[in-house]
Amino acid sequence: MTYADTYRRSLDAPAEFWGQHASQLHWFTPWEQVLDASQPPFFRWFQGGTTNLCYNAVDRHALGALRGHAALIWESAETEQSRTLTFFELYREVNRLAAVLQALGVGLGDRIVLYMPMVPEAVIAMLACVRLGAIHSVVFGGFSTKALASRIDDATPKLVLTADASLRKGSVVPLKQMLDEALALTERGSVEHVLVLNRQLTHIAMHPERDLDWAEQLASCQQRTVPATPVPSAAPSYILYTSGTTGKPKGVVRDTGGYMTALHASMEQVYGVDASAVFWSTSDIGWVVGHSYIVYGPLLKGVPTLIYEGRPDHPDPAVWWRVVEKYGVTHLFSAPTALRALCKFPEHWLAQSDLTSLRWLFTAGEPLDEPTYRWASQAFGVPVIDHYWQTESGWPMLTNSVGIEHLPVKPGSPTRPAMGHRLQVVDANGQRVPPGHKGFLVEHGPLPPGTLLTLWNDEERFVRDYWGHFKGQQLYLTGDYAIEDADGYFWMLGRADEVLNVAGHRLGTREIEEVIADHPAVAEVGVIGVRDDLRGEAVLVVAVLKEHSTPYSADHIADEIRHLVRERIGPIATPHAVRFVSQLPKTRSGKIMRRVIRAIYQGDSIGDLSTIEDDVSIDMVRTAIAALQVQL
Ligand code: AMP
Q1: Taking burial as the number of CB atoms within 10 A of a residue's CB, which of 238, 249, 421, 521 is the most buried?
Q2: Dihedral, CA atoms, 229, 233, 236, 241, nearest 10 degrees?
Q3: For residue 494, is it within any domain?
């Protein structure tokens, strides 16, 4: 079976291709039509079928051969706790919580917001929601009150599930208190109840009547099992908010039948998972990667999945490697940012653990630059697979589908389209550009199963933002620039909304960053377009240097960076300014906050900082910039 043949089949005969995959899962009522594409850009998979995501992820295994097998493994570096639940134990816990939710009036189509730490109860809660046909909306536990309030306002949940607190490098993040503050900010978000998991990490104030204690509710609920509710295949399973070009978050809506089919298939096709796998995605349940590959994908496939509370470098930079050794992790899925952070530390941290269980390392979320790719390949001695996707897609769009055919890796490229994805690089008129030319990465409909159904409360924005970009043609706009090479490999060049325009020449931030990342002293770099009276925009470089990496001064390295860019890309891209900081300001999902760096540099208002990793880095950037301004 080759990639080319399988991919072709997924495009030419989608009904047969996905129908075969879907039939490996449980349906309460069989579908009548695999794909309804009669109303583009709305595509509905498995029309007429009814199913349940929780039933397929849990019951199918818990009441079958995998009953006593590990399902959910929790490891907390913060509390030094761990817990493993078998499929049957997970089934029991999910049922008990579903019974509590049902007693509180939760049913089909109700929205439930989760504002939870990385604990097993968070996964149990997601599964309990979909068991009842309720729609969960997980808000990343690191978001601030303002971000939480806007999501509650949009989703209008019946219930919010939270905990007293989470921990970040030992310091308490008071989730319940932040939720109370968020609820006070909401315009429409009067919730009936808040269910609070009390981890005894901090004192909490309970609002009479509204707030309920998680453990008490479980203890007082007599009912032990709740049948999984059959829901139509196109019924929303969750809403996940992501940022767009405007300040208002977009609520990406996921279906049920298409999503579970695509995820189940992707476990084999994309990740090459078999029954002996132990899957660890180091993401957070607040992100799409967490939804798909901490929770649903591995469980649908019946393999153990790890949920980890903590950082990669706390209490020390070997903590992840100890987890890999402890559980015999076979598939590690992480972000290039984390690898770049870890590669800064001396090798002995890695050498302490036995990592021979590892078979694959996957990265996504941002470009995997070549130096980091080389470091990881050498450090782990396993194939390192970069793959590209988005909150909207729910599962990988570009990848090396190693379970079908492990294609030769071209470092820096997330390889080729995943099954069913009709990706192309086009110009501003939607016309395909020749190989080697830069353009917009778009996808032709029908989108494969698992991709976004619409935007919550905003069908118009869904059609306009994603499908309304090209005159006379409906193409799904990813928002990214890319190049397809002569071998059909794609190369990501950064967001189309992050491009620079220097004297009328368009430059991708990614292109410049890659060149600078090659400098031996540079650990991490962000390139930002800043206002320039003469040339429209100028290139600002903000970089983090490797520790003890060079005997040369910062000025000397800055000169070398300028030279490198001029040499590799051309004089037009020569950085106007190069600044060194100890940390780059990033969104919680690891993306460099170019907007913030730009605003600080230009002396504009910074705006909403609710998604910043930690405010200290902003201060550091500010200090660095202030230092520069003094020098000038
Ligand atoms: P999010 O929806 O937050 O996961 O962000 C999706 C965006 O992250 C994409 O549109 C890309 O800009 C970027 N992205 C994700 N994966 C990759 C990758 N492997 N290479 C380059 N960019 C990526």
Answers
A1: 238
A2: 130
A3: no
325 within some domain: no
Which residue do the tokens 């930690």 mark? 614
Q: CA-to-CA distance for 25 and 586, rounded, in angstroms?
A: 39
The H or E element containing residue 491 is strand 490-495
Residue located nearest, by CA, to atom 20 of ligand 1: 367
Residue 373 lies in a domain: no
- The Å distance, Cα 364 to ligand 1 centre, comes to 7
CATH value at residue 101: 3.40.50.12780
Ligand 1-lining residues (CB < 6 angstroms): 242, 288, 364-367, 386-391, 414, 478-480, 492, 495, 589
- pLDDT tens digits for 312-330? 999 999 999 999 999 999 9
Question: Which pTM value belongs to this model?
Answer: 0.84
Report residue 295 as tokens. 């929770």
CA 141 to chain centroid, in Å, comes to 14
Alpha-carbon gap, residue 350 to 359, rounded angstroms? 16
* Look-up of token digits 């196109």: 234
186 CA distance to ligand 1 centroid (A)?
30
**Which residue type does 539 have?**
V
Of all residues in the chain, the percent with pLDDT exceeding 90 is 73
| 3-state SS assignment for residue 3 | helix
Please report the pLDDT score of residue 627 as a whole number.
54
Sign of CA dihedral 170, 171, 173, 176: positive
Going from the C-alpha of 292 to that of each of 67, 75, 279, 390, 396, the distances in angstroms are 22, 19, 12, 11, 10
Spatial contact of 135 and 89, defined as CB atoms under 8 Å apart: no
At 244 the pLDDT is: 57
402 and 525 in a single domain? The answer is: no
Phi, psi (5° rounding) for residue 75? Answer: -135, 125
Kindly give the distance from the C-alpha atom of residue 69 to the centroid of ligand 1, in angstroms, as a whole number: 34
Give me the domain span that covers residue 205. Answer: 3-310+387-467
Q: Which residue has its alpha carbon closest to ligand 1 atom 21?
A: 367
Across the range 78-89, mean pLDDT stands at: 98
Q: Which tokens in the block code for residue 36?
A: 């309804």
Question: Between these two residues, 102 and 609, which has the higher pLDDT value?
Answer: 102
- In terms of domains, do 447 and 516 share one? no
